[in-house]
Amino acid sequence: ERRLRIQDFIEKRNLEESQKDEAKKNELAEAKLRAEEAEKERRHQALKHWTRVAEDCKEEEERRARQGKKEIPLSAYLDGVLSMAEKDGKIPAQTLRFGKGKSAEQKEDPASTKRGA
After folding, report:
1. Separation CA 15–CA 7 (nearest Å)
2. Which of 4, 62, 64, 107 gets the highest tally of CB atoms within 10 A of its CB?
3. What pLDDT was estimated at residue 30?
4. Stretch 27-43: mean pLDDT
5. In sequence order, what are the residues at sequence separation of 6 or more whose Cβ sits closer than 8 angstroms to the Cβ of residue 57?
């Protein structure tokens, strides 16, 4: 009878260990999935931001053209930046400067853009 109790104890312990291992495995898989989803969302938001920046630059370029100002087109430069953004999601934080001294980081705030107001 003592052997049976010892064997039951060992079986219970092994079962608990395997359940703990399975729970850890599931937890790690869920964490990995959450990290992948967060990265996809970050890339989506970055692309959305740079698309908005491109639209703003093109509007500024059109406004300058209407005023007769001859300058290097912003959209040509921005197209390269956007293709880089789409390629790997790594966006240079302060690549662009805008009229009135606004940086790309300031443009990201919807309250500071005319669309967000």
Report:
1. 12
2. 107
3. 97
4. 95
5. 74, 75, 78, 96, 98
